[in-house]
Write a structure and sequence with these properties.
260 residues, D-amino Acid Aminotransferase, Chain A, domain 1, 5-stranded antiparallel β-sheet
Protein backbone atom coordinates (compact mmCIF):
# COMPACT_ATOMS: atom_id res chain seq x y z
CA UNK A 1 0.00 0.00 0.00
CA UNK A 2 1.56 3.34 -1.07
CA UNK A 3 2.58 5.59 1.80
CA UNK A 4 2.56 9.40 2.04
CA UNK A 5 3.02 11.99 4.78
CA UNK A 6 1.27 15.28 5.44
CA UNK A 7 3.20 17.76 7.60
CA UNK A 8 1.21 20.27 9.63
CA UNK A 9 4.31 22.47 9.49
CA UNK A 10 5.86 22.16 6.00
CA UNK A 11 9.25 23.02 7.56
CA UNK A 12 9.12 20.21 10.13
CA UNK A 13 12.57 18.61 10.17
CA UNK A 14 11.30 15.58 12.06
CA UNK A 15 8.60 14.87 9.47
CA UNK A 16 10.99 15.51 6.60
CA UNK A 17 13.56 13.13 8.12
CA UNK A 18 10.92 10.44 8.46
CA UNK A 19 9.75 10.92 4.86
CA UNK A 20 13.31 10.55 3.58
CA UNK A 21 13.93 7.50 5.72
CA UNK A 22 10.79 5.81 4.47
CA UNK A 23 11.25 7.00 0.91
CA UNK A 24 7.71 8.40 0.75
CA UNK A 25 6.26 11.57 -0.76
CA UNK A 26 5.30 14.61 1.24
CA UNK A 27 1.87 16.01 0.34
CA UNK A 28 2.26 19.68 -0.52
CA UNK A 29 0.01 22.28 1.12
CA UNK A 30 -0.50 24.06 -2.20
CA UNK A 31 -0.58 22.77 -5.75
CA UNK A 32 -0.58 19.11 -4.76
CA UNK A 33 -1.55 16.49 -7.35
CA UNK A 34 -2.27 13.95 -4.61
CA UNK A 35 -5.69 12.34 -4.59
CA UNK A 36 -6.84 10.15 -1.74
CA UNK A 37 -7.97 6.58 -2.08
CA UNK A 38 -8.51 3.44 0.00
CA UNK A 39 -5.21 1.93 -1.13
CA UNK A 40 -3.20 4.92 0.10
CA UNK A 41 -1.93 5.45 3.66
CA UNK A 42 -1.18 8.97 4.90
CA UNK A 43 0.89 9.67 8.00
CA UNK A 44 -0.64 12.76 9.58
CA UNK A 45 2.28 14.61 11.16
CA UNK A 46 0.65 16.88 13.70
CA UNK A 47 -2.30 18.34 11.80
CA UNK A 48 -5.72 18.83 13.38
CA UNK A 49 -7.19 19.48 9.93
CA UNK A 50 -6.41 17.70 6.67
CA UNK A 51 -7.11 18.97 3.13
CA UNK A 52 -10.01 17.34 1.33
CA UNK A 53 -7.68 15.83 -1.27
CA UNK A 54 -6.72 13.27 1.38
CA UNK A 55 -10.33 12.12 1.88
CA UNK A 56 -10.81 8.39 1.39
CA UNK A 57 -7.26 7.48 2.41
CA UNK A 58 -6.24 5.46 5.42
CA UNK A 59 -5.02 8.01 7.98
CA UNK A 60 -2.48 7.33 10.73
CA UNK A 61 -3.45 9.76 13.51
CA UNK A 62 -6.90 11.06 12.67
CA UNK A 63 -6.98 14.88 12.73
CA UNK A 64 -9.73 15.15 15.36
CA UNK A 65 -7.63 13.02 17.71
CA UNK A 66 -4.56 15.14 17.03
CA UNK A 67 -6.67 18.21 17.89
CA UNK A 68 -7.57 16.71 21.28
CA UNK A 69 -3.95 15.84 21.98
CA UNK A 70 -2.72 19.31 20.96
CA UNK A 71 -5.11 21.31 23.13
CA UNK A 72 -3.85 20.96 26.69
CA UNK A 73 -7.27 21.19 28.32
CA UNK A 74 -8.88 18.76 25.86
CA UNK A 75 -5.90 16.47 26.42
CA UNK A 76 -6.48 16.19 30.17
CA UNK A 77 -10.22 15.80 29.70
CA UNK A 78 -9.63 12.49 27.87
CA UNK A 79 -8.20 10.87 30.99
CA UNK A 80 -11.14 9.70 33.08
CA UNK A 81 -12.08 6.64 35.10
CA UNK A 82 -9.31 4.05 35.27
CA UNK A 83 -7.06 6.30 33.16
CA UNK A 84 -7.37 9.41 35.36
CA UNK A 85 -4.21 8.49 37.29
CA UNK A 86 -2.07 8.51 34.16
CA UNK A 87 -1.81 12.31 34.24
CA UNK A 88 -0.88 14.82 36.93
CA UNK A 89 -3.81 16.19 39.00
CA UNK A 90 -5.51 19.02 37.12
CA UNK A 91 -8.42 21.42 37.27
CA UNK A 92 -10.03 24.15 35.23
CA UNK A 93 -11.25 25.91 38.39
CA UNK A 94 -9.06 28.69 39.76
CA UNK A 95 -10.67 28.25 43.21
CA UNK A 96 -9.39 24.69 43.38
CA UNK A 97 -5.95 25.87 42.25
CA UNK A 98 -6.00 28.38 45.13
CA UNK A 99 -6.89 25.57 47.55
CA UNK A 100 -3.85 23.64 46.31
CA UNK A 101 -1.68 26.67 47.03
CA UNK A 102 -3.18 26.91 50.53
CA UNK A 103 -2.19 23.25 50.98
CA UNK A 104 1.41 24.27 50.16
CA UNK A 105 1.36 22.76 46.68
CA UNK A 106 3.06 24.44 43.72
CA UNK A 107 0.65 25.08 40.85
CA UNK A 108 1.35 25.16 37.12
CA UNK A 109 -0.97 27.48 35.18
CA UNK A 110 -1.37 27.07 31.44
CA UNK A 111 -2.42 30.40 29.94
CA UNK A 112 -1.95 29.10 26.37
CA UNK A 113 -3.66 25.81 25.54
CA UNK A 114 -2.13 25.16 22.13
CA UNK A 115 1.38 26.40 22.80
CA UNK A 116 4.44 24.21 22.46
CA UNK A 117 7.07 23.63 25.10
CA UNK A 118 6.86 26.09 27.98
CA UNK A 119 4.77 28.68 26.11
CA UNK A 120 2.13 30.04 28.46
CA UNK A 121 3.45 28.02 31.41
CA UNK A 122 3.42 29.87 34.74
CA UNK A 123 4.77 28.26 37.93
CA UNK A 124 3.16 29.61 41.10
CA UNK A 125 4.66 28.77 44.49
CA UNK A 126 2.53 28.61 47.68
CA UNK A 127 3.95 31.87 49.00
CA UNK A 128 3.01 33.71 45.77
CA UNK A 129 -0.69 32.79 45.55
CA UNK A 130 -1.50 36.33 44.49
CA UNK A 131 0.43 35.71 41.27
CA UNK A 132 -1.95 32.98 40.12
CA UNK A 133 -3.03 34.05 36.61
CA UNK A 134 -6.40 33.53 35.03
CA UNK A 135 -6.21 30.32 33.00
CA UNK A 136 -8.37 27.50 31.70
CA UNK A 137 -6.02 24.82 33.01
CA UNK A 138 -4.09 24.35 36.24
CA UNK A 139 -2.06 21.32 37.29
CA UNK A 140 -0.30 20.37 40.48
CA UNK A 141 3.46 20.43 40.20
CA UNK A 142 4.67 16.88 40.88
CA UNK A 143 8.26 16.43 42.02
CA UNK A 144 10.28 14.33 39.61
CA UNK A 145 13.55 12.47 39.62
CA UNK A 146 13.61 12.16 35.83
CA UNK A 147 11.69 13.26 32.77
CA UNK A 148 11.44 11.02 29.73
CA UNK A 149 10.18 11.08 26.18
CA UNK A 150 8.74 7.72 25.14
CA UNK A 151 8.06 7.23 21.44
CA UNK A 152 5.08 4.95 20.80
CA UNK A 153 4.00 3.54 17.43
CA UNK A 154 1.18 1.05 16.93
CA UNK A 155 0.88 0.30 20.63
CA UNK A 156 4.60 -0.35 21.18
CA UNK A 157 7.40 1.70 22.71
CA UNK A 158 10.03 2.07 19.98
CA UNK A 159 12.44 4.53 21.61
CA UNK A 160 13.05 6.12 25.02
CA UNK A 161 15.04 9.26 25.82
CA UNK A 162 15.69 11.08 29.08
CA UNK A 163 16.14 14.79 29.62
CA UNK A 164 19.64 15.47 30.90
CA UNK A 165 21.43 18.69 31.81
CA UNK A 166 24.17 19.70 29.38
CA UNK A 167 27.56 19.64 31.08
CA UNK A 168 28.68 22.94 29.53
CA UNK A 169 25.45 24.62 30.67
CA UNK A 170 25.91 23.32 34.23
CA UNK A 171 29.54 24.46 34.32
CA UNK A 172 28.64 27.94 33.04
CA UNK A 173 25.85 28.24 35.60
CA UNK A 174 28.25 27.31 38.38
CA UNK A 175 30.83 29.88 37.24
CA UNK A 176 28.22 32.60 36.99
CA UNK A 177 26.39 31.67 40.20
CA UNK A 178 23.12 30.91 38.39
CA UNK A 179 20.64 28.33 39.64
CA UNK A 180 19.53 25.47 37.43
CA UNK A 181 15.78 25.36 36.82
CA UNK A 182 15.06 21.68 37.51
CA UNK A 183 11.31 22.24 37.45
CA UNK A 184 11.15 23.19 33.76
CA UNK A 185 13.53 20.93 31.85
CA UNK A 186 13.65 22.38 28.37
CA UNK A 187 16.33 23.45 25.89
CA UNK A 188 16.37 27.03 27.16
CA UNK A 189 17.17 25.78 30.66
CA UNK A 190 20.04 23.60 29.43
CA UNK A 191 18.34 20.21 29.01
CA UNK A 192 18.69 17.86 26.06
CA UNK A 193 17.50 14.35 25.27
CA UNK A 194 19.92 11.43 25.66
CA UNK A 195 19.47 7.67 25.51
CA UNK A 196 22.81 6.28 26.70
CA UNK A 197 22.90 4.12 29.85
CA UNK A 198 19.19 4.45 30.56
CA UNK A 199 17.49 2.31 33.16
CA UNK A 200 13.92 3.35 32.48
CA UNK A 201 11.31 2.22 35.03
CA UNK A 202 8.76 -0.03 33.34
CA UNK A 203 5.91 2.12 34.62
CA UNK A 204 7.21 5.02 32.51
CA UNK A 205 6.82 2.96 29.35
CA UNK A 206 3.49 1.48 30.45
CA UNK A 207 1.80 4.83 31.10
CA UNK A 208 3.13 6.22 27.81
CA UNK A 209 1.64 3.37 25.80
CA UNK A 210 -1.67 3.65 27.66
CA UNK A 211 -1.79 7.40 27.08
CA UNK A 212 -1.44 7.04 23.31
CA UNK A 213 -4.12 4.34 23.33
CA UNK A 214 -6.42 6.48 25.48
CA UNK A 215 -6.17 9.32 22.96
CA UNK A 216 -6.89 6.91 20.09
CA UNK A 217 -3.63 7.77 18.34
CA UNK A 218 -1.57 5.49 16.12
CA UNK A 219 1.66 7.13 17.27
CA UNK A 220 2.96 9.84 19.57
CA UNK A 221 5.96 11.04 21.57
CA UNK A 222 4.91 11.01 25.22
CA UNK A 223 6.50 13.26 27.83
CA UNK A 224 6.51 11.42 31.16
CA UNK A 225 7.83 12.36 34.60
CA UNK A 226 8.86 9.82 37.22
CA UNK A 227 8.48 10.38 40.96
CA UNK A 228 10.87 7.96 42.65
CA UNK A 229 9.38 8.33 46.13
CA UNK A 230 5.91 7.40 44.90
CA UNK A 231 7.32 5.01 42.27
CA UNK A 232 4.79 6.53 39.91
CA UNK A 233 4.94 7.95 36.42
CA UNK A 234 2.72 10.74 35.12
CA UNK A 235 2.07 11.83 31.54
CA UNK A 236 2.49 15.54 30.80
CA UNK A 237 1.61 15.61 27.10
CA UNK A 238 1.68 13.67 23.83
CA UNK A 239 3.39 15.24 20.81
CA UNK A 240 2.04 14.19 17.41
CA UNK A 241 4.83 15.85 15.41
CA UNK A 242 7.99 15.29 17.45
CA UNK A 243 11.49 16.26 16.46
CA UNK A 244 13.34 13.27 15.05
CA UNK A 245 17.01 12.78 14.29
CA UNK A 246 19.62 10.05 14.25
CA UNK A 247 18.66 6.82 15.98
CA UNK A 248 15.12 8.03 16.66
CA UNK A 249 14.50 8.45 12.91
CA UNK A 250 15.76 4.92 12.30
CA UNK A 251 13.44 3.52 14.97
CA UNK A 252 10.44 5.34 13.50
CA UNK A 253 11.28 4.13 10.00
CA UNK A 254 11.34 0.52 11.17
CA UNK A 255 8.06 0.92 13.03
CA UNK A 256 6.21 2.65 10.20
CA UNK A 257 7.36 0.20 7.56
CA UNK A 258 5.14 -2.34 9.27
CA UNK A 259 2.15 0.01 8.87
CA UNK A 260 2.51 1.14 5.27
Amino acid sequence: MPGFIYLHNPNSEGGANLARGLGIRRIRHEGSTFRGGPRKTVINWGSSQLPRIIDGSRILNLPERVARASNKLAFFQQFTGDNAGLVVPWTGDSREALRWLEERETVVARTILNGSGAAGLVLVSPDRAGDLPRAQLYTKYVMKKDEYRVHVVNGQSIDVQRKSLRRDFAEAAQREGREINWKVRNLENGFIYQRENLQTPQTVIDVAVRAVQTLGLDFGAVDVIYNEQQRRAYVLEVNTAPGLEGTTVENYVRAFRGLL
